[in-house]
Amino acid sequence: MKRLTILGATGSVGSSTLDLVARNPDRFQIAGLAAGKDWARLADLARTFRPTRVVIADEAGYDPLKQALADQPETEVAAGSAALIALAAAPADLVVASIVGAAGLPSTLAALDAGITVALANKEALVCAGGLMTAAARRSGARILTIDSEHNAIFQVLEAVDRVRRIIITASGGPFRTWTREAMAAATPAQAVKHPTWSMGAKISIDSATLMNKGLELIEAYHLFGLRPDQLDVLVHPQSLVHGLVEYIDGSVLAQLGSADMRVPIAHALAWPERIETPVERLDLARIGRLEFEEADRDRFPALALAEAALREGGCRPCILNAANEEAVAAFLAGRIGFLDIAAVVAETLSAIPARCPETLDDVADADARARAKAQQNITLLKHSPFAARQAAV
Ligand code: MG
Q1: What string of DSSP letters covers 25-49?
Q2: 134 C-alpha to center of ligand 1: Å?
Q3: Could you say which residues of the chain have pLDDT below 70?
Q4: What is the fold of 2-146?
Q5: Which residues 6+ apart lie within 8 Å of 350 measured at CB?
Q6: DSSP 104
Q7: Which terminus of the chain, N or C, has fewer Cβ atoms within 10 Å?
Q8: Cα of 338 to ligand 1 centre, how many Å?
Q9: DSSP H or E segment with residue 313
Q10: Ligand 1 center–CA 359 separation, angstroms
């Protein structure tokens, strides 16, 4: 029996994870569940899975959650960021870290510090503080498994790193793969969240539309696999069936394939080193007929180039990139800026803040806060002269 704690239980990855847990009651047991704001959904999940503890990050959710679980005294209820960190470090065999954004960093780090294996969906934590996270895992002996589909694919086909020439993560290209810059300038949030192959949360769907998601994933791969930045590559594959490839020094290329369903990588991480059955659609290559690939276009999708530069520069550049991107994506979803402005805000923020290495969680928090403040200034400027800014971005 594996005891799981799920941070971000009400989100897309949390729901897929609980679907697999419900199908394998003899293998998995829920130790803890945490959610951001949705106390009603969290209460429903707590009644179904009977965890030892539940945490609602938003303290306003404490009273209604406590009341909803009044007849379930075996489940302890807590709220706030300190309770979230305590839950992450509480006894469990595996913590599924699926909180979106840099907000998930302290809890993920707490699990690693406590020596608990983490199944990581929260790529922003690794982008912001990958050095701290991998050091914490080495110190405590915790393992970082990944449920990002591309990285999980690489993990499945990776032998010793010194035999690897390069690794390639695939990108669907997102909903605007064939759009011109002019068309993208007028793209709406509804168009941008409509991902062609994957069903995911709003933030990662926008990141997929800008290709920032692929840039963040290169930085994630850098920390997970210990290769040089120039050994990490992106390949556009619109069908999302080949998720990752490893090219070895002898010319062999090993790839992992599967349906575009997050339950495949999640099942792999939950069961590792074993495997479990899943209900996902089986891959029928004869019906699919052909697999398509193309180069990523860094001119139409400058966010990818920005992330690659941040990876090469290292230090706190990826943290600044991520913080500015989180602010810009939220502003785009709120209708405050245009689609092309997302990368423009990130570029402007990176150029305005000098580099300094993150060594502690405080340094990372400081770089993150400065980048968010600068990004908000840039968003306000754009809002007041949207036409000029959009022209500059095109
Ligand atoms: Mg991914």
Answers
A1: TTTEEEEEEEESS-HHHHHHHHHHH
A2: 19
A3: 357-358, 385-394
A4: Rossmann fold (3.40.50)
A5: 306, 310, 317, 320, 321, 324
A6: G
A7: N
A8: 24
A9: helix 302-313
A10: 27
Between the CA of 60 and the centroid of ligand 1 the distance, in Å, is: 32
**Alpha-carbon distances of 215 from 132, 179, 229, 286, rounded to whole Å:** 20, 19, 11, 32
- Sorted by where each begins, the domain ranges of the chain are 2-146
Q: Rounded to whole angstroms, how far apart are CA atoms 228 and 221?
A: 10
Q: Of 281, 283, 266, which is closest to residue 22 (Cα–Cα)? A: 266
How many angstroms is it from 197 CA to the middle of ligand 1?
12
Q: What integer pLDDT is reported at residue 361 of this predicted model?
A: 84
Phi, psi dihedrals of residue 7, rounded to the nearest 5°: -95, 115
Cα-to-centroid distance, 61 and ligand 1 (Å): 31
CA of 150 to the centre of ligand 1 (A): 5
Task: Give me ligand 1 centre to Cα 201, in Å.
Answer: 12
Cα of 36 vs centre of ligand 1, distance in Å, is 22
Indicate the SS3 state at residue 117.
Answer: strand
